[in-house]
Design a protein that fits this description.
Number of helices: 3
Helix content: 55-70%
Structural class: mainly alpha
Length: 80
């Protein structure tokens, strides 16, 4: 198994593949960036609305689909 850019392992060695565990780790940083941006704009500190959580979830699901497609294409290219 080869390590991913973040240190996880996978049988797929394509640098394009994010790997599911790496994708899941994006949730916190994405939400943190949104919160920082709102704070910089002077928005009051409050929990993010549910629609933001929903949009982050949609983004993560889209990344999973892209990752799976890249992994599948890489396997085909390798003849697997």
């Amino acid at each position: 198994m080869s390590p991913s850019p973040t240190g996880s392992t996978s049988s797929i060695t394509s640098p394009l593949c994010l790997y599911n565990e790496d994708i899941e780790h994006l949730r916190g940083p994405i939400k943190a960036q949104i919160e920082r941006g709102l704070a910089e704009l002077g928005a009051p500190q409050a929990p993010l609305p549910q629609w933001v959580d929903d949009q982050v979830e949609e983004l993560i699901n889209a990344l999973r689909l892209v990752d799976k497609s890249a992994a599948d294409a890489y396997k085909v290219r390798l003849g697997g």
